[in-house]
Amino acid sequence: MGGTYTRVGDYYLPALALPAEKEKHIGIWGQRHAKYLKQNHKVLYMNLFTSGRLNEYLASVDALAVDMFFRLATKYSDRQGVTEQLKSENQFLWIQKMNNILACVREVVENDIIYS
């Protein structure tokens, strides 16, 4: 027989190994995208996994989503006049506006990057 096999009981099974992949940090956005791929795009997920590029791909999606999230949050807060001055004058209004901004930005990032 060609290749490497391991005997398990009465059977010889091929000794398969996935290609080595450099571990990178995957944040919440990358984890959400991985879950989405597992549920909705199984072939793409398995192709990335078996080729050893899944971790790198998810890390790049995470970095892109984090960058977009902070960029949009800053942009939206500037547009709506949410400043440090507002925070010191009226904390409850500042919290209300920031929660609204963050919810909107989260939805945009999820629709544009995570679930597409």
UniProtKB/TrEMBL annotation:
It comes from the Bacteria. This is TnpV protein.
